[in-house]
What does this fold into?
Amino acid sequence: MSAVAAEWRKLLSLPSALVAIGLTLVAMPALGTSTARRLAAQLDAGGDGVLGTVTTLTVGFELVPFAVLGPVVLGVVIIGSEYTRGSKDSGGGRQITTSLTAVPGRGRLLLAKAVVLAGVSAALAVVVIPATIWLAQTALGEHGHTWDALGPRVAGAVVYWMLMPLIALAVTVVTRSGIVPMVFFVVNSSFVSVTHLLTRVTPLAAYLPDMAGTRMFTAQGPVHGGLVMLAWTAGLLAVAALVFTRRDA
Amino acid sequence: MRAAGGDGHPGPVIELNGLTKRHGGKVAVDDVSFTASPGRVTGFLGPNGAGKSSTLRVLLGLDVPDAGTALVGGRPYRKLRNPLRTVGSLLDGGGAHGSRSGRAHLTWLAVSNGIPRSRVEEVLDLVGLADVAGRRVSTYSLGTGRRLGLAAALLGDPEVLVLDEPVNGLDPEGIRWIRRFLRAYAAEGRTVLLSSHLMGETAGTADDLVVIDAGRVVARGTVPEVVGGHASLEDAFFALTEERGR
It folds into this structure.
């Protein structure tokens, strides 16, 4: 328990983590609302023809795989910050030596980090995702939907937001630096989705964790997609635990 | 190798036995054995790259040895419950994240080992950091960073102190302060193990010495025993290390 309490403090005293949390809280609801407003105006003016591949049911949800970057950044920095070298002036030490002398059980330390990360991500998700969807659907006005239709998708999106950061944590344990995972996750969620492009090359890419996880909030086999993503998360965490326990600090 | 000194002390608290550690193919620590006893300051002396830090990292459970054991009070470090309350340690480089304040660093450390939060302010005062405790660690000088590391080591009011090059970066006043502090700490019956490459400084602080060179212990005993017939510890040290024909 004390290890979890310490990890909680560590994460919430990192400026980069606070920035990620703050941006997520503000950006996603704001973007969701503005998209929905624009769409509502087009629908009022020109009917269903403006929708294309989007439906009024997915408004707001298209931001879920993008705004998950906030929790993903938390997953990267919760490990990456341990391996950041101090300045040459200060001797170039890394925090991981302090963390492991305080909590020498590798499994215990990693579990504490995963618990804190999942908790913070879940808290962020249950606030931001329903708020965004509510704001977006409200902005759609008469084109909006009821929670009967939206609820399961919201639940799926919350699960997605809990699993993605855990995957980021596991990858960062292996790389021992936040830089490579950070670049990959930022690029993949915002500029060019490598995993999405892969789905055009091979149907197997649909089984990649983020692609499968997306199905939890697009209602295209949410249970199956969720289980695939869960299996990835568990597998990657197991690899991370194995590496972390066997490696010298 | 000279005979072990420090006989007659109760319950050796730090005990290294046949410790060997390889980094890649290179042997960093080669069959190292010694004890550091309570009530005494043990100096762990050797040139840079002799294997001091590698030995201390194994002792603190950070790295796994290829052979041998390192015990604190009869137990490996990794088996200690709330280890900061038994062993305080300071490794080269400080080990605090630059974007947190010194106080925030000590606070999470205290929380991790069930140490009362009031202790954070106590150790900040003790090492003279109270004024800068609210500033980010990345703004600290080398000496201030060492003081923070020392505060972290003292946080759990431990029976054992393991310090790697503690006087690095400290000004003369800080060096004097730490020498007196460690002497007083050992006088309370606690165990102090400090590594250094500074011979004069170590001779003035330590009761017992372990001299390491190229991964092997070349001498151990009380300071007079290790100095032997030489004019100074420095002379003894070079005689011991040059004997090995490096």
Remarks:
- The longest helix of chain B spans residues 172-187.
- The helical segments of chain B are 52-59, 102-112, 118-126, 142-154, 172-187, 199-205, 223-227, 233-243.
